[in-house]
Amino acid sequence: MQTSGRRDCFVAEKHEAKIYVQVTYKMGGQSTIDREFVPLPEIRDNHPKYVVSMDELWRDNIEGIKHISVYITGVARVLELKRNGD
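Now predict its structure.
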């Protein structure tokens, strides 16, 4: 999905459920954080939005967008969150 011409994100849909996922290798600095988090609030619906990275320690949520560390939790965690309605 294109958001204001800035960046694409993944959209996962199953039945009526939908999530948006932005993926980056590491949150190297403020410009990376802005690039990954800023476009997602522009999507004006109530579906969950996630930024996924390999960061070991950086675990923050910004404007309701959740950061998930694949390094720590693995991809299965994203699916678990969705199954639990988070």
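The mean pLDDT is 81.
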